[in-house]
Amino acid sequence: MNVIHEYLRGRSEAFVKLEEVRRLGWSNPHGDTHFQQQRKRADTATADERRLFFNMIGEEMQAATSAIRIQEEDLWSWMLVHAMTLPKQLGGHPLLISHGNRNPQVNVRFLDITKLGLEYGLRLEELEPDMSAEQPYPNLQCDLVFCDGQILRTNEAHRDPNREKHAATRLTCSQLILAMNRMKQGGTLIMLLHKAEAWNTLELLATFAEFSDLQVFKPFKKHATRSSFYLVARNVQPGFAAARLAVEKGKLSWRHASIGPGPSASPAENADSKEQEAVSRVLETFGEQFVQLLNPIWDIQRAAIERAPWFKASTIKSELST
Ligand SMILES: C[S@@+](CC[C@H](N)C(=O)[O-])C[C@H]1O[C@@H](n2cnc3c(N)ncnc32)[C@H](O)[C@@H]1O
Where is the Ribosomal RNA methyltransferase FtsJ domain (predicted)? Predict the structure, then answer.
């Protein structure tokens, strides 16, 4: 039994309704074909299509949360951007913004952020051959940090198959640690997340609630049928004990997912029951806030699935056949 699902079924009508349309939608081939085509379109989108897409999400996010705060015309003249992303030869997305010599306000490091072992707490002698001791932009104090790294299909061939099942954890922990170690006190952090009801996501949201003002955002116009949404944390306090603990936990998870727990680690026995205890604790303290935060996100996804032509076509067809 999934404790989180059970908890939500008892308290969130939005979640129950979403589960129902997901069940209807996901069990039909129209949905599969639609999502296959959508994936193909995403992988082969032109620069103009990508620009339009990201601008739409950005504008909607700003309108809903004011978190990006690019309101004054002249802000761009003194703003500095420091970015990290995958190089093209590792399957990274093409960069849409001019940078470096062509635009000194935008610095970009092309690297695989999941491999910065020293940054994530490994000792030099523990680094594996594909890892790096670099710690990019070490002294930054950012006002606004975007963590919208996403596991890319185009990068799959370059990932270590032995670490594949931990790929999402490694990317999330990498972003969390890099971001929290480069945030200004009181700054804003925006992170792309998936499946709010998954334990990792719930835990991350509960963690941010301890040291920031937490909001969530899901665009109506793009990716609305997916489970993706954004954590928007304002007034982040990286100096709080809870924030420092979150970074240490992130380092431990990255270590386990990347090189294994090692011989001196405590045995994994009771890991399941320990996790269940943690789930119950988080639901007790954060469950109500979680439901209030996520209800609008689940409503947006459910309504978008119901509106989708592939969903309508499939339900009409199954109604006719019964
Ligand atoms: C959802 S897209 C972000 C789009 C971007 N914010 C924009 O507006 O164009 C996901 C990004 O994650 C990056 N990414 C995925 N895995 C990565 C990794 N291991 N290291 C660095 N960047 C990674 C990809 O290169 C891609 O640009």
Answer: 128-235
β-sheet bridge partners, residue 217: 230
Q: How far is the CA of 167 from the centre of ligand 1 (A)?
A: 14
In this prediction, residue 53 carries a pLDDT of 78
Burial 104-130, CB ≥16 within 10 A → b, else e: eebebeebbbbbbbebbebeeeebeee
Cβ-contact 228, 193 below 8 angstroms: yes
Question: CA dist 118 to 68, 110, 124, 156, Å?
Answer: 31, 18, 7, 24
pLDDT digits (tens, 9 = 90+) for 146-172: 999 998 888 899 898 989 999 999 999
**Lookup: tokens for 177:** 């640690």
**pLDDT (tens digit, 9 = 90+) per residue, 98-145?**
999 999 999 999 999 999 999 999 999 999 999 999 999 999 999 999
| Atom number of ligand 1 nearest to Cα 115 | 19
Residues 6 or more apart whose CB falls under 8 angstroms from that of 140 comprise 82, 182
For 315, the 3-state DSSP assignment is helix
In angstroms, what is the span from residue 150 Cα to ligand 1's centroid? 6
